[in-house]
Amino acid sequence: MDRLVNNGLVGRRILVVEDEMLIAWAITDSLTRLGCEVVGPAARVDQAIAMIDHEPVDAALLDVNLNGKMSYPVADRLVADGVPFIFSTAYQKNSLPAAYQIFPMMQKPLDTAQLGEALAKLLTAGAPTVSGKKANSLIWDANRLKIATDAAGVALWSWNVETDQIDLDARAHDLWGVAAGDVTFQDLSARIHPEDLDRVRAAFAATREMEGAYEIDFRILHSNEIRWVSARGKGEDQGIVGRSMFGVFLDVTGRKLAEEAREMLSGEMAHRVKNLFALASALTRISERSTSTSAEMSFDLIKRLTALSRAHDLVRPVLSDPKKAVRLGDLLAVLLAPYMEERASGDRVSASVPDVLVGEASVTTLALIVHELATNSIKYGALSTPTGTIAVTGAAHGGTLSITWQEQGGPPVQASERMAGFGSRLIANSISHQLGGTIAFEWPTEGVIAKLSMSVARLGG
After folding, report:
1. Non-local CB neighbours of 361 within 8 Å, separated by 6+ positions
2. Which of the pair, 34 or 91, is modelled with greater confidence?
3. Which among 263, 271, 371, 381 is least buried, having the fewest CB atoms inside 10 angstroms?
4. What integer pLDDT is reported at residue 126 of this predicted model?
């Protein structure tokens, strides 16, 4: 195997922390080509920390999400040991907690040459030193601790386990939205989300008997918004001084929202893969009905799949050819083309909508909605029969776009066939949260009617 060894990296021991086997293999291969010695890979937080305990490490490549668990404890340990590291992740940097945005980050997939340059730069800078000693040997006086906690957004608390009094620093008062002065656990309980309150009470009560560090995440109500807070501290005698316990609060709202978005995306991807199989099967049946020979069917099916490919290019443009906005009619034409029956008497699907623009940020959302409606039509509605039709019409008034999706000619609509579950939630959430609108369904016997309303400004954003 060829090596890119003119980089000062030969023999440097690089810890790889990555839970995806194929990605870990690719990173290992790149590091080997760069002349590095690979430590790991580690796929879990505890596994990575154990390797740091027993293996000499010059630097590390650290995935942010390890099978649902964030790797920040590994990052903290590397910082404490003065080992430089790079986050290797598919996340955007601003989705990381503020305390970790100061560290270098590379987007996956990693290019070998760029990885070599980043590691060479990282190792040249090295870990912070003072008089030849690592930074973690500094004396952390109160002033330095305050600088560090302010930079990391850490709020401090102490809790007297006998009087129930809680002392908060200024950042903690601001986080909870409580005035300066004496605070009890009961005062803070009034601001904990009702669904989390019993769990938090039980966790704090258990800290009197717990040994070692503990952590609990929960929601609090602050003005008109919900914040996620992580409470961390130590229990039992090692964490109690004069009957008071000490710990920190962290605002982890950004991380929790990112986790929720990731879970939503994971569910969407699983749902989408299943629908793609159903869609491919349905397109094959449509092509079979509209052709008389295998050659014609092959040509027809390829044409339909090509239309789907064009739609994918439209909603996911490559970085070198960004498309900032498309006309609504053009987008619908591409998205609905696979469902058109050009050889049948009249078009199966027609669209007549206002001349409004759809911005790059909204294209995917609208494509998701159209795909969901069309897939359900193929399964249960007008497109499940040879003669069913769909008409998409729209009008724009006073900054609001109204679109009506009307099906006819399919099997009689039954109550059990109405949209429910993940698909309907996905459509409703997409329209509400991203397009500032609503969707409502009507269920006449001759075919479903979906009425969508959305903000023209949001759609073009």
Report:
1. 434, 461
2. 34
3. 263
4. 58
Tell me the whole-structure pTM to 2 decimals: 0.38
Centre a 10 Å sphere on the Cβ of residue 353 and count the other Cβ atoms it contains.
20
Enumerate residues 6+ apart whose C-beta is below 8 A from 249. Answer: 154, 155, 156, 157, 172, 175, 176, 229, 230, 231, 232
Our separate counts of H helices and E strands in the chain read: 14, 23
Mean pLDDT, residues 19-31 taken together: 85
Contact 159, 214 (CB under 8 A): no
Q: Work out the average pLDDT over 303-307.
A: 65
Q: Which CA distances in Å does 368 have to 93, 212, 375, 420?
A: 26, 47, 10, 16
DSSP-H helix ranges across 37-99 = 45-54, 72-80
Domains of the chain: 13-136 (3.40.50.2300), 139-251 (3.30.450.20), 256-460 (3.30.565.10)
pLDDT in tens, 393-418: 999 998 899 999 999 988 888 754 55
Token readout for 51 is 């390797």
The burial of 291, by beta-carbon neighbours within 10 Å (0-12 exposed, 13-18 middle, 19 or more buried), is given as middle
Residue 14: which residues within 8 A CB-CB, separation 6 or more?
31, 36, 37, 38, 39, 57, 58, 59, 60, 61, 119
β-bridge mates for residue 158, sequence order: 167, 246
Residues 170, 172, 177, 178: is their CA dihedral positive or negative?
negative
Bridge-based pairing state of the strands 37-42 and 13-17 = parallel
Kindly list the distances between the CA atom of residue 267 and the CA atoms of 180, 314, 315, 419, 432, in Å, as whole numbers in the listed order: 43, 23, 20, 17, 19
pLDDT at 189 over 80: yes
Task: For residue 329, give both structure tokens.
Answer: 């009619």
Count Cα atoms within 13 angstroms, Cβ side, for 336: 25
User: How many Cβ atoms sit within 10 Å of the Cβ of residue 121?
Assistant: 12
Mean pLDDT computed over 227-238: 75
Taking residue 348's Cβ as centre, other Cβ atoms within 10 Å add up to 22
CA atoms of 213 and 233, how far apart (whole Å):
6
Give the CA distances from residue 41 to residues 22, 44, 61, in Å, rounded to whole numbers and listed in that order: 11, 9, 10
Which tokens belong to 340?
Answer: 């058109």
Round to whole Å and give the CA distance between 438 and 450.
10
